[in-house]
Design brief:
It contains ten helices and three strands, in the order H-H-H-H-H-H-E-E-E-H-H-H-H. By secondary structure, it is mostly helical. The chain folds into two domains: 64 residues, Fe,Mn superoxide dismutase (SOD) domain (Helix Hairpins); 114 residues, 3-Layer(bab) Sandwich (minor pseudopilin epsh fold). The longest helix is centred in the N-terminal third of the chain and has 25 residues. Bound molecules: fe (iii) ion. The site of fe (iii) ion has 7 residues, from helix 2.
Amino acid sequence: MAIISGINKRFILLSSLLAASALAALLLTQCSKHGQAAIFVQEPLPYAQDALAPVISAKTMSFHYGKHYAGYVKKANALTQGPAYEGKTAVDVIRETAGDAAKAAVFNNAAQAWNHAFYFKCMKPQGGGVPQGRLAKMIDAAFGSFSNFKDVFVSAAKDQFGSGWVWLVLDGNKLAVIATSNADTPLAHGLTPLFTVDVWEHAYYLDYQNRRADYVRQVLDKLANWQFVSEQLTKAEPASPSKSKQS
Ligand code: FE
């Protein structure tokens, strides 16, 4: 039988208390005061915070991922406590609160949590290049060429007044570029998001100041993860073109 000295006993007791505290803190962040699991989870960044530099600096990523995105996740969870949201997914919450002025705060934080998780996955270090396969064919069909698509996408970013997002979406059976304001998301309009660039100033101002178009062009040319975009296209549910017109 091992002999544990008084110092070791105190060390083991202290270690146990610290471990228990850490577990309690983790459980509190994952569960609401009603005991329900958190609907929104801050997804891990799929690369290091400095991995997208110099296109997007580590400082921008630190604030964007660690403060802005984290804040939306925290607020979205705080606003979806209680039985009305029990068992709902993040997408359920977004679709059910879209257009409801009384639930604007829930929609804004829920949509921003989802949009940011998607945005960070749309990029990768040493990305860019050209899309392949079905995605490449559909881009050519919709925009004439990949080069034209990039011009359309950058123009949409320049023309978006104020904060928002620019998206490549699947609308029925064809691709389209759209811009959404503030927290708005294609999920609320019956469209399938395939790719996005965040054009809120917090996404680029530290690195590009007012040169939004340069930031978007650089993301397209050097960071876009076209493999991820192709995967979104592959798993998209077939939808009728009229579906988007009804929502
Ligand atoms: Fe953002």
